[in-house]
Structures are given as C-alpha cells and as structure tokens.
Specification:
- The chain is mainly α.
- A two-stranded antiparallel sheet has the order 1-2.
- α2 runs antiparallel to α4 and α4 packs antiparallel against α5.
- It has 5 helices and 2 strands, in the order ββααααα.
Amino acid sequence: MQYFAPCGYAYHSVGDTAFMWFTYHLSQLVVVMFLFYSGYGVSESFKKKGMPYVKAMPRHRLLTTLLNFDVAVLSFIILGFALGLSFTLKQCLLAFTGWVSVGNSNWYIFVILLCYLMTFISLRLDIKNPSLRVALVTALCA
C-alpha cells in the first residue's frame, strides 16, 4: 500500500520508512557537526587574531552572512510572487532576519546569526579567564 507523507515522499515498504528515519537522523548529525566546526573556526580565529577579529565580527561574520541570506530570501519572495503566492509586508521583512520563512529554510541561518551575535557580545566583555568566557558563550547560545 502506498501513501504520501506530508513532505511529499511516497513510502512503499518498511525499508523506505527505515531509510527515511536514517537520513533524517543523519541530517541532524551533519547540522550539529557544521555548527561545531563553525564555532571551532570562530574560536581559533579569535585565538590567532585577538580583539581585532572580535571588533570586525559584526561586519565580516554577521553582516556578510545576513546579506548572503537576504539575497536568497529575495529570490524566494520573487519566485513566490511569480508562482502566485502572497506574503504580507511583515512576513517579508521578518523573513530577511530569518525569523519567519517564505518557503526557504530559515531556522539554521537564524541560529548561526544568533550564535555569532552572542559570541561577539561575550568576547567584547574581554573576560581574561578562558573557561569563564567559554561558559558565557555557551550560556548565551543555549
């Protein structure tokens, strides 16, 4: 017996269900590893470059990431209008921040921007104790 899941996949057997379960959890693992390596890269850059790196974070990390995301969101909005979808002005404006979606995947960009912002705030406090600094970043990002 065949049926369609909300995501549009057609399941034919138990093997399909097992495969989808596996790929779902594998996808989560990939996201976790990407966030880990991104955070590791930020911490290594901070160790090598110090406060000049932190002072440049809003421009180099936050703004660059947000602008790239906003180009993609604008593409989704244009495509949505071309396909006859309608979005409110509020929905469009919030989509550019990653707070809501206009058909794109927005949760990841919102999380990474928030982590960059919390890291920037905690590193600007210039705490000398590295363990306390890590604890603060962790608490702010949790």
